[in-house]
UniProtKB/TrEMBL annotation:
Gene3D superfamilies the record matches: Rhodanese-like domain
Keywords, ordered alphabetically: Repeat, Transferase
Official protein name in the record: Sulfurtransferase
InterPro entries with a match to the protein in the record: Rhodanese-like_dom, Rhodanese-like_dom_sf, Thiosulphate_STrfase_CS, TST/MPST-like
Alphabetical list of SUPFAM superfamilies matching this protein: Rhodanese/Cell cycle control phosphatase
Source organism phylogeny: Bacteria, Pseudomonadati, Pseudomonadota, Gammaproteobacteria, Oceanospirillales
UniProt source species: Endozoicomonas gorgoniicola
PROSITE patterns: PROKAR_LIPOPROTEIN (PS51257), RHODANESE_2 (PS00683), RHODANESE_3 (PS50206)
One Pfam family, short name: Rhodanese
UniProt cross-references to PANTHER family, sorted A to Z: SULFURTRANSFERASE, THIOSULFATE SULFERTANSFERASE
Domain Rhodanese stretches: 40-153, 172-278, 309-430
Amino acid sequence: MKHIGCLCLFIALSGCDQQENVQMPVFDLVDQHKMMALVNEHNWTLVDVRSSDWFNGWPSDNTGVGGHIPGARNFDLNWLLNESHELNKVTERLFQSKRMRKAPGIVIYGSDQYEAQILADWLVAEQGFENSDIRIFPFGFSGWLKSGGDVETMPSYTRLVPPVWLEKQMQKPQPPVILDVSYGSGIRYRLTHIPQAVHVDTSWIESRPLWNVVPENELQQTLKHLGISQNKQVVVYGQDMTAAARMVSVLDAMGVNDVRLLNGGLKAWIEQDNAVQSGWVTPEPVETFGAAEFKDVWVDTERVKAILNNDSEHLISVRSWREFTGENSGYSYINAKGRIPGAVWGHSGTDPYSMQDYINPDGTLREIRDIAAYWQQLSPTEETVMAFYCGTGWRASLSWFAARLLGYENARIYDGGWMEWSSDPRRPREAG
């Protein structure tokens, strides 16, 4: 597991100011039969501490098999390497979405017993859990595989790629087009970006005053300039997963056949000790984009009104709770407060520029079971229309992408979002 040596050192050093003879907690070990009995018959929560990429479905280094034990929840051990004050901001959100507080107990597994022990120690020492309510499956994921256990993966996990996959693709004779997405002239890009990546300013794909996506013909010209045609493989990343997801929605709408999102973005790439470069990469334009038709990704205001009048279709707000309830508008350039009447809250983050309910502490996408729970009250099927909105489209694009991973092909983005809806005082609003 990446950085596991650093994490072990961190755990060891954190106890240096304690008495030398203090013993670490002892946890009961369980075999496979006991583990599954606790989970299935007694409603304990099963926690996988391995990399979220391995958990999702990508092959791990030591087993060559990806995925996780069915029903497991992911709590990547490397999240503990974050600054404690940053980690503390999201731990309770993580515990709540993964049922780690409310469950009768927790069973932990990793690649081996030692990894599971580290999380167990942290839960007891730092988070107030009782060691009597924690069990460890010492044989780990490899032991589960050797016993013939089934494996569960995230649907469509190949669209959410880890850095190791991208690094291998870059070595091929025809590497993917790599897009580094951010707003503005690309100052950060000029300082640090993935080799071969070309910069995309989001103002090329959306425009004032409402920051809606520009017309199809303008998008096509931009994509051709970036070297993208319908049949090119494209990998998108950014320092911000929401900006990258915004670009993914554009590529999907334009019918590009193979579009991937780099899980964790630039931060994940750097943390895997991959090479970066500075300067500017000039794209190689293509003459022909292809005969793709504009796909249904976005909905306009009139369609939103129809959704609100249809009990089988749903408008989902992924603005922060303070925005949703009308405590603030979220943006300096949006004066109106409140929400669209009839919209349901689909969780988000603490402010307009974060999405802790959708993004892990290391910047990777939350496990799909976490995200799916936010819409559970709607009882959606694969055919259900769910239109996501935020302020101007970035956060909604990430929730839309997660919904597509889950197989909701009728997931949509209300492109105008709160900015467009609230721009007309005749449209209703509500707060509270």
